[in-house]
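Most newcomers find our protein records easier to grasp once they have seen one. A learned vocabulary of local backbone shapes supplies the integers on the structure line. Here is such a record, shown just as it appears in the course material:
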Amino acid sequence: MEKKIAIVSGAGGIIGQSIVNNLLLNDFNIVASDINIDVLTTQFSKSENVTIEEGDITDATSQKKILDRALTDYGKVDVLVNNAGIEGTVEPIEELDLDSVRKLYEVNVFSIISFSGLIAQEMKKNKSGRIINMASGAGLAGTPYMTPYNSSKHAVLGITKCLALELGPSGILVNAVCPGCVESEMMSRIEEEFARIEGESVSWEGGVPLNRYAKPEEVADLVGYLANDAPEYINGQALVIDGGMRA
């Protein structure tokens, strides 16, 4: 059977690495991209099924390089995982620096719009494809002190729904993954920032019925399902993986 081809942005983070590993287990060839490829080089340079491409996902030239690499090495793109994202600053609204908010939106929102448009042109040629956007449980509710991040993830869900309607007739499925709290450096930084603002240690584990944060591999399992095994009739959905936190 012919291997499927996936592009994964933000592949150097802990969730991104887990997604690449999951897709490898599902017999994909992968173009793994990140602005810093040191971790990717360490983890995947010996894998003949992973092509590593350094690039700033907010830059149109970098996006084109990533796509060209996929087409040169593999000839097509079956799956795009828009995984690149940053948490930005955790601050009261009156203390926010708008330049940092703009930077966050460049990564979390605008890059998804532009990169999805670029890749969709190729997918339309084959009349098939799957785009998976990494959103968040933060895109389904509010969180104090995280207006930029939460609002950006709300935007990701809006993009997902619009593209599902627009691209579905071309055979391209578009869905979003909404993790809750995940064991990661990002989560640790957020906890530290909340502790700084509130003056005491902060953890949301007690609000999860399973009494723990998600493992990155569990989030990757859901991404892998959408990339490979999920029925074609799943389209325009925000699939939540939060241990029942918002049940």
In short: The longest strand covers residues 172-179.
